[in-house]
Amino acid sequence: MNDVRTALRDLADEGRPVDLGAAALRGLRRRRRRNAALGAAAVAVLVAVAALPWSGLRRPAPPPAAPAAGQHVAAAYADADGAWWVLDPATGRHRRTAADVLAVSPTLDRVAVRPPERERTLLAVEATALTGPATVLVRLPAEPRSAQWSPDGSRLVVALEPGPVGDEFVDPGFTDVAVVDAVTGAVDRFGLGLGELRRALRVWWGDDGTLLAAVATVDAVEVPREFEVYSAEGSLRRRDPAPRGQSCSGRLSAAAVPPVLAGRPLACTRGATEITLWTTGEGGPAVAGRLPVEPGQTVAPVGWSDPDTVAVLRETPAGVSLHSADLRTGRLGPAAPGLPADATEVVVGPADGLSAAAADLAF
Amino acid sequence: MRPSTEQEFLAFVAAATPALFRVAYALTGQQQAAEDLLQSALERVAARWRRIDDPGAYARTVMYHEQISWWRRWKRREVVVARPPERVADDPAAGVALRLSLRAALDRLGPRQRAVLVLRYLEDRPEAEVARLLGCSPKTVASQASRGLARLRELCPELGSLEEAR
């Protein structure tokens, strides 16, 4: 046995210890900042790591009906411990993944993930089902901050981290994005041309293949001032003013569905008792509807269902939940199944890719 | 974390890093991977600092489970992420050959077997403690250690000559 012991010690001696305390604290802050930016709990509540390969979503036999057009589903979520679970659209069950989920494809068959703490600039596109197609690995020019899948499922737009993260809850915004071919892994990086005084907060695909960025000024980086429309090659096409007021939250970044309907981006401002949903465009912001908010609650849109209905994420002291909201009546539908109340992050996707067996997860 | 708590955490890291890094390196066999694995574990320790009694044991548990999780997710599916080979310091040729052979052999072990060997023979921890850290029974630890040793000797026959030489 001594030979193995000696050999293992010799091997361990090769390593050059590095003091990682400060780096670990920065990493922890980065995680928490992401949670905050996604509108989740600011500090993760720590529970035991789930050890089972499948979540406890054991449901009775589902009705054999396909999801309705425009419905959504909780395509992935991070639990209270920060571990990610991805929905298998065929079975309707979430499975644990070792990586951080950035985006889920419009047909729910693929997921863009960041491998855990190994290669910070690596992005992987893999199947949501274990038997799906092979993984595509992509080396990005910088660490990915967020990603959005194009409506046709062919590309991803990735917001790139500008550099090391500083204070815990200060969001530095970003200036550069990468457009990634989800099949070949080809990467095209470009800057948004924001100069020294402006930073982007979010970037999404429009429904016509353009890119849409929410842009703020560096002195108030949490409030979008403008929505800028770019070609997929990075040329600025249009700059539309954002509605004035307190932003509902940064949760739109959690949506896999571009919050754009018929070319009009969705924005949200918050008042004391209600939130106002806006569409933005060349003519300036226009009110799309209002939803009531009780004290202590936050409600934020995560995608359009149809011109009168939006999907929203609601957070209360009891936890988070997803709902369909009718803009004509201001009423929220029942909480969608499939999302634990203590989830800290969520990626919402269109329910079109759900099998009939999983259709009861749609909302 | 409050500043005072951060100082406590940083003091723990400074004291525990030499031992923890050896474990991380033995588990991964690569400098950068070991740094990433240990940093990831320390982040979890930092997040739970007020809730855990033994941060060193907790960090070890996290490293073993993360390594197993990583291996399952990425290595078993034969996704190869190119990394430059570690530079080997000047060393007698026989020692270098043995280390390379051992590293290759360890890389071919399953992650749980490798973790058991590292805990039992690098850290000299008793079976019961290994079982507690890995979340399995002592019987499983014994069988994994036995199989791991046999496999290691099969893959790295030079191991036997080491003891004779020393």
UniProtKB/TrEMBL annotation, chain A:
The chain crosses the membrane at residues 36-54. SUPFAM superfamilies: DPP6 N-terminal domain-like. InterPro entries: 6-blade_b-propeller_TolB-like. Gene3D superfamilies: TolB, C-terminal domain. Keywords: Membrane, Transmembrane, Transmembrane helix. This is Uncharacterized protein. It comes from Spirilliplanes yamanashiensis.
Automatic annotation (TrEMBL), chain B:
One of its GO terms (biological process) is DNA-templated transcription initiation. CDD domains: Sigma70_r4. The keyword Amino-acid biosynthesis does not apply. Residues 100-152 form the RNA polymerase sigma factor 70 region 4 type domain. It comes from the Bacteria. Pfam families: Sigma70_r2, Sigma70_r4_2. The keyword DNA-binding applies. Keywords: DNA-binding, DNA-directed RNA polymerase, Sigma factor, Transcription, Transcription regulation. One of its GO terms (molecular function) is DNA binding. InterPro entries: RNA_pol_sigma-70-like, RNA_pol_sigma-70_dom, RNA_pol_sigma-E_actinobac, RNA_pol_sigma70_r2, RNA_pol_sigma70_r4_t2, RNA_pol_sigma_r2, RNA_pol_sigma_r3/r4-like, WH-like_DNA-bd_sf. Residues 15-76 form the RNA polymerase sigma-70 region domain. GO terms for cellular component: DNA-directed RNA polymerase complex. This is DNA-directed RNA polymerase sigma-70 factor. Belongs to the sigma-70 factor family. ECF subfamily.
